[in-house]
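Field reference: sequence -> structure
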Amino acid sequence: MLRAVILLSGGLDSATAAAIAKNDGYELFALTLDYGQRHRMEIEAAKRVAEHLGIAKHVIMPVDLRLFGGSSLTDHGEVPKDTPREQIGQSIPNTYVPARNTIFLALALAYAESVGAETIYIGISDVDYSGYPDCRPEFLQAFTRLANLATTSGIKGTSWRIEAPLLSLSKRETILRGLELGIDYSLTLTCYDPTPERKSCGRCESCQLRRDAFHEAGIPDPVESVCEHTQ
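Structure field:
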C-alpha cells in the first residue's frame, strides 16, 4: 500500500483531508506539531481523529515557535473576536504564525522521506480562510518544486506530491465531503482561543467560519452545544 503523511492539527480541515487521503487508498502517517500554540488543546483532538481514522503512526513533534513570537497564537496578543464576516480574509490577521505552513511542510517532508512516503496531505483552503499567504496554490506549487530539489528521494527520481484536497472547497463543501467519508466532527477542535473549561470561544474567526459553514450546510455542529457565546 502506498504511504502518505498527513499534517493533522485536530481541526475540521485537517480531519477532512485525512479522511480523503485514507479514501484515496493511502496508509497514513500523521504529524501533529506542538508549537506552543495557545489552542494546544487541538493536540488532544488530533489524537482522537487519528484513532478514529486508524492512522498507522501518529507523531506529535514539539517545535516551540513561541521563541519567535509574532502571532497572537504564540504570544500574549489578543486573538481577534467578532470580526464582521465580510471582513474575514480581507487582510492578514495577527493569528498568522510566521512561515508556519512552510515549517510544517518541511517537517512533514522529512517525516515522509523517512517512512518511504511520496505524498503529503495538508488541509488548507484558498476559499474560506483568514487570508494567510501560505494557504495559496502558488505556495504549494513552489514547495513541491523545493521538495523535488532538496531531498535524496527527489534527486533519485521521486516525484513529490503535495495534496491539498480542500484547496478549492468552501467550508460548507468541506463539511459535506467529510460527512460522506464518515468523519465525526465532534472529535475536532477549531477554536483559536478556547476557554480554560476546554470550550470553543465561538467568536474568533476560526469559530465563525466553522459556525457559518455548518449553518450553510443545514447541519448542526456537534461541538456547538459545548461552545460559549455561539449564536
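Note: Strands lie at 3-7, 27-34, 57-62, 119-121, 161-163.
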